[in-house]
């Protein structure tokens, strides 16, 4: 059996790069699911801009659904890494099996509940009468593939945490490429419009989920997926560990939904235009935050494994390289937003009034993305080391800053300035995260050393 990465022995700098880069690329490719859909939809003749606003309203709800995949995937995979680091493979296998059944159960409940209340949800979250038909068409079809979406995202984390980052990237690429190929066929050739984009997405997620499950059931993985009966105690541990990334992703989308609602409240006749621009801005931010999350969460296996193995030296070294890589990625995207944002917007629309407003909004929205890189690593680092309560608190602090700003800025400065809410939350959230990290990291590393002693392991220094 060949392992791609030895989490406990390989050189830390190279290990970080080998896990972070494929995970970053995988998340970038994953962004293509929604961004490519929106590009094609925005270019549908006559109705493009209106349909794009409809998909923009349903988009945050769709992503909110995917948060449940991260609840399980980013809850179970750090626990699995820690157990593997401790040498407790049987417990690690039970975590894997329980995670699978959690995803199946959650996807079934979500599909039923959301299908019943879909129209009311879309209306309350910003869909006007003009854009509701497009939002409902996309959302209804997407719900049919909920189980595939959650399995492909959630179970892929258990491939990555076993050291197979390249395979994890391939699974995402398979779905994204399938989506890119099928989108124009369903949208334009079959003349299905928005519904065609949703069908293409569902089929793509099915392909990705099938690949992930086949690999986890194969012989290449260290720990193979077995369909054991779920255990309440293990399920609760996974849910508790995954609560932080779940709340981070879920609340991110609650904030976008709040933004859409505020725009609809204060935007007047220009509300649908602002929603279209917001949809493009959020598409750009996905290209920033999804790869960033790939770097910081994809390397969490290194932190979890070495925390379980009692190696604080390797944890500190890994965090240094992870932070540096995250800052570089966000710096590149910051420069892109200042120089090439117009060309990104042209992918969605050629209407100059839309283009001018959206380019300005992108430049405002991205003012704080470089410090945001540090905040992501601090939060995901705490999660990877099994300290989800701190991660949740820091994430919620940043989201609260955003939420308050979204509701206050339109009242005092006009609805068009609501985009500055992201700047307030990025700088404020990062400052708080750095302060808390400096206060707590020494104590957490002490727990790491103590954990190794309790498991009868000697803490070794890097050579």
Q: How would you describe the overall organization of this protein?
A:
The chain has 463 residues and is an all-alpha fold. The chain has one domain. The chain has helices spanning 12-42, 48-85, 89-124, 132-143, 146-154, 156-160, 165-189, 193-216, 232-266, 271-298, 300-308, 312-339, 341-346, 352-365, 369-384, 388-413, 421-454. α2 (48-85) packs antiparallel against α9 (232-266) and α4 (132-143) packs parallel to α8. It is globular, with a radius of gyration of 22 Å. Residues 457-463 have low confidence and may be disordered.
Strand portion: under 5%
Total domains, how many?
A: 1
Secondary structure: number of strands: 0
* Main beta-sheet strand count, sense and barrel state: none
Q: What would you report as the Rg, rounded to the nearest angstrom?
A: 22 Å
The residue-averaged pLDDT reads 87
Keywords:
463 residues; mainly alpha; 17 helices; disordered C terminus
Summarize the structure.
The chain has 463 residues and is mostly helical. The chain has one domain (12-454).
Topology at a glance:
Layout: H1 12-42, H2 48-85, H3 89-124, H4 132-143, H5 146-154, H6 156-160, H7 165-189, H8 193-216, H9 232-266, H10 271-298, H11 300-308, H12 312-339, H13 341-346, H14 352-365, H15 369-384, H16 388-413, H17 421-454
Helix pairs in contact: 1-2, 1-7, 1-8, 1-10, 1-12, 2-3, 2-4, 2-5, 2-9, 2-10, 2-11, 3-4, 3-5, 3-9, 4-8, 5-8, 7-8, 9-10, 9-16, 10-12, 10-14, 10-15, 11-12, 11-15, 12-15, 15-16, 15-17, 16-17
